[in-house]
Amino acid sequence: MLLTGNKTAAYAARVAEAGYVAAYPITPQSEIVETLAQWIEAGLMKARFVNFESEHSMVTAAGAASLAGVRAFTATSSQGLFYAFEALYTVSGWRAPIVLVNVSRGVGMPMILQVEHGDVLAARDSGFIQLHAETCQEVLDLILLGYRVGEDSKILLPVLVNMDGFVLSFAREPVEVPEVDEVRAFLPKYSRPRPLDGSEPVVYGPTLTDGLAYLFFKYGMHRAMQEAEKVFEEAAKEFGDRFGRTHEPVEGNWLDDAEIAIISSNSFTTSIRSAVKTLRKRGVPVGLLKLKMIRPFPRERLAEALKGVKAVAVFEQNLAPGRGGALYPEIVEALYHMGKRPAVLSFIGGIGGMQVGLPEVETMVRRCREALETGAVSKHPILLVRREDAERLRTLLETATAGPLEVEQVSKA
Predict the structure, then answer these.
(1) Pairing state between β 260-264 and 172-174
(2) Checking DSSP bridges between strand 129-132 and strand 20-23, what pairing results, if any?
(3) pLDDT(413) > 50
């Protein structure tokens, strides 16, 4: 089928036989819950659909449905994810394996509707497994894998599947949608240990405890999150055998002989891969590493994939005030224990849907080469801005109280 990313997410919930859909519309994810509401009303999907007064209630209700033994689905974006932040920690603490689709877009003021990853990365330590989709097909596949992993009796954690707003949510791409019977063979009926039962009432709420008990539960979540990486790989192997599409926590291209590697995630990876392919044809020894899993963070696999690489360019679509790219320090930490560590540079681009293509990739490669030649690695994130926007940005920065940010003027040539 030719589907938008949003409609793909709806199809994934449908073929996964989600029995409870908690909803609150917000641009750019509204199409997901609108589609599900239409299907449920028409009898095409057997599920309970509830539209809530806020994302906080929506996520809490999805978690409660999961505790009752029902496969639950919900979706949000940007400010909506932030509104639900308290509930994210509640649901993960409940060990309720819901799937939440986040359609990334900019947050706060000034307001923008285009893609930026500040929303999803702010939630990376909430206890949700995080899977990030590059294509519409990956949206469907990762939702199915998310249910399979999250509902595993060794895991029992909620899962967040991220797609880029507008770039992917409203982009139409060919998607293979499996039949319900095919999915049922891969994704068994959700069977929760000790589901909520009205005849034996228990309390799942703000129960006060002591430090040792709190640590016990938090550490249990941590151990389950660590185990989730292995469970994902096992499930992905079976998924590949059944559906012919493979998935790994990190996926590389042209890394065997690469001197420079670019790390990226989500939909802009497609443009970066195309640019890397062009540079490879010119004889440039550059490779690409895509992060499909952000939580648990696949540090060992990332380090293994980058053995022999001399320099790493971390491309991120977020800017954490006072820090820079949110994933950059995590990648540095993952590579810190390597015997021969590569130089690691941080690049910020694609914010608010700004262009990313060959000029940006050429610039990242050039800056990596300069770092290798001089031994001087920028301590600050490098902003990738097209030449036509660079002067305007510099003017804006001069009128603001700005920290040490480096703006790299990217030429179209």
Answers:
(1) unpaired
(2) unpaired
(3) no
